[in-house]
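Reopening closed ticket. The problem is back. First fold of the pair:
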Amino acid sequence: MRVSLEEYAAHWIAAGRGPEYAVQTYALPLAPSDLRALKDPVYHEILRERVVLMDGVIPALTRLQVRFPLALATNSNRQDTGFVIARFGLGRFFAAVVTRDDYARAKPEPDAFLTAAARLRAEPAVCLVVEDAHKGVMAAHRAGAAVAAVPNRFTRDNDFSLATAVLDGLHQLTAALVDELLARHAQQRTAPAGGALRR
């Protein structure tokens, strides 16, 4: 079995159901959990050799930390998340870190963001989630949070219609914009459904 980059982007990154998709599509004689277990060591090696931060991460975190408590909520496990946080010195930015070990259902279910909001002692409705893929936007929407989508090169074609706004990059993410998006989200919760706005 050989999965194309397009398939991986669509089913693993965007939808978060890659192993289920591969087992069904290619009639693999194993369970999705077994395929995940086979993928993990390969993923860990790639992570340690090639991981880079999205453009603008450190400046955005630096700007936002002054005004807001920040949490990281990820589908990655505690070991991989800890490696990335330590490698790039990100720990100082986060009041809470929520990994796949901390909640029951992975994105696109809302558990990661509900857990993060609880650790920040905040209602999800007053939180802004920043996500780069459809499954994360869906999870944030299901949690009741506002969401700013920042697509990457693999997710530009994802459905971001449930996002409060779609940004061109993290350079746009300022405290003033967070305030604006939270206000917009509050209005959207009491208005008819509409699509995301691109800034």
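Second fold of the pair, where the issue appears:
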Amino acid sequence: MSALRVTGRRLVELGAPDGSGLLGDLRALIEQLGSGEADAAHSFATPATFKALTQFLESYKRNVLIPHEWPAIYRAYLHTRQGECQELIALDQSLANEKALAPFADASRRIGQFQLSRLGPLRGERLLARYIAAIDERRAHGWHTLVYGLTLAVYSLPARQGLMHYGHQILRSYLESGAAAFSVSDEESNAALENLLGDLPRELDKVLNPAL
């Protein structure tokens, strides 16, 4: 069992309604999903209609969340539980080469490194200290997905619950902000959200159990 596990402690900030904590800080990443910078570099079109927004989020879910972000979070979670710092750093380095993650790289680093700074009392733990040192030495980036997985492990939160919470939060937040911008009815927004989230449990099973 990793020395980082803190039995009985609960990361209240994970989904705090005031926007604090890692999922609150994902708002910066959500904003970058449709940013002009990402559009210019990767030919993403800023959604002009609510239908275009839902199509964009479906593409994000299929091409980024499920194949890249969820596996990165889960691998970071497992490495942290096993005290595997070198493997965590190698994973961090490998993500820099993932083209699908490039549009979100700047926001991901900012969010991840900010969250590491908030783990104050745990910074003396060996794995965490070594990972932070690697970031300071520019041998690692501190991606928000890896920090999220690390945080789940540090606070002994269930991986499935944390991964599902991540997927729901980022998709729901962006969809709801778009629904307000396009003056979409609650019924239409809720239907779109249900379609967007409906297959996440099945897809998460595949991430957690690749042999299935």
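Update: turned out to be a display glitch only; the data is intact. Residues 23-37+48-208 form a domain with the Urease accessory protein UreF fold (CATH 1.10.4190.10). The CA atoms of residues 7 and 156 lie 6 Å apart. Please close again.
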